[in-house]
Amino acid sequence: MRPIPTAIIGFGLSGRYLQAPFYRAHPGFTVHRVVTSRADELAEEFPDMEPTTDLETVLADPEIQLVSIATPNATHYAFARAALEAGKHVLVDKPACATAEQLRELRDLASHKNLHLFVFQNRRWDSDFLTVRQLLDAGHLGELINYEARYDRWKPAPNAKAWKETPGPGAGMLYDLGAHLIDQALALFGRPLDVQGSTWTQRGHSDIPDAFDLQLTYAAPLRVSLSCSLLVREPTPRFTLHGRHGSYVKYGVDVQEDQLRAGMAPDDTSFGTEPTAQDGILHTELDGLTFRGPLTTLPGRWTELFDNMQRVINGTAQPAVPLDDVIAQLELIESVAG
């Protein structure tokens, strides 16, 4: 099939490093335009492309079929709406919108125009999350009792991206990293019966909620805990799972972002592969015998998000990340953030 002509809106971390490499490597896409003021950085990645500085130029281009939005959170709703109204398919970075109501509006608009709206929930294809999913599918822990997922970092200084420290719609770590943690929980367990939690500010200079703690209630006995802090210097487990037969504890984070920022291409044979030192520990009973040891972490596969998007646009697949899941995610965020 003919590659899908694509425009990338924004060329910061997400646009340049987390999206553009996949569009370049994937035969199903071709990048026609990039909206950015960073001409020098664009030239490093697309030497023959002239930068475009306004969205209207992209929306008026009849060749472009897909608009990939990688801009600050507060712009997502307006940019996605404008692209849909112009007749373009849309991939929008997370958080998709500041409110569930905004995303419902975009979903209905896309449906009315027979277009597809995707959300960049790339961490459904993280190495550690894929391993957790495989482990649960295999039933090696028995009935799951407790699932804990954390995004802890040591970042006491203000973020260099001023917009990430600016109060407003979609601001704060619950919308930032929380969007990934909640999405992963929804992918595994569905919508919870109840959610309790809080957000607060830990860093003295911060004007946004930079920490959160959530407890998601499912049918007994399962309890799900999700949390984030930017003032954790000593690493904590990324995942901790306890079941009636055993436990799994995993340190370290998926390596795909670091590899992309270092210049590794998504089609490199070692892309997405974590070092064995980051393998999680499985302690359980297998075939009547007690086992304790490392569990090999599956390779991360963010490429699958783009594979799925191409197939959906070409009419051969259903979205891997249903919009209803992302709407539920935003509803949960709003119930805690207020």
UniProtKB/TrEMBL annotation:
Residues 6-119 form the Gfo/Idh/MocA-like oxidoreductase N-terminal domain. InterPro entries: Gfo/Idh/MocA-like_OxRdtase_N, Gfo/Idh/MocA_oxidoreduct, GFO_IDH_MocA-like_dom, NAD(P)-bd_dom_sf. Keywords: Oxidoreductase. It comes from Neolewinella maritima. Its EC number is 1.1.1.371. Coiled coil: none annotated. Belongs to the Gfo/Idh/MocA family. It is an enzyme of class 1 (oxidoreductase). One of its GO terms (molecular function) is scyllo-inositol dehydrogenase (NADP+) activity. Residues 129-248 form the GFO/IDH/MocA-like oxidoreductase domain. Gene3D superfamilies: Dihydrodipicolinate Reductase, domain 2, NAD(P)-binding Rossmann-like Domain. This is Scyllo-inositol 2-dehydrogenase (NADP(+)) IolW. The lineage of its organism: Bacteria, Pseudomonadati, Bacteroidota, Saprospiria, Saprospirales.
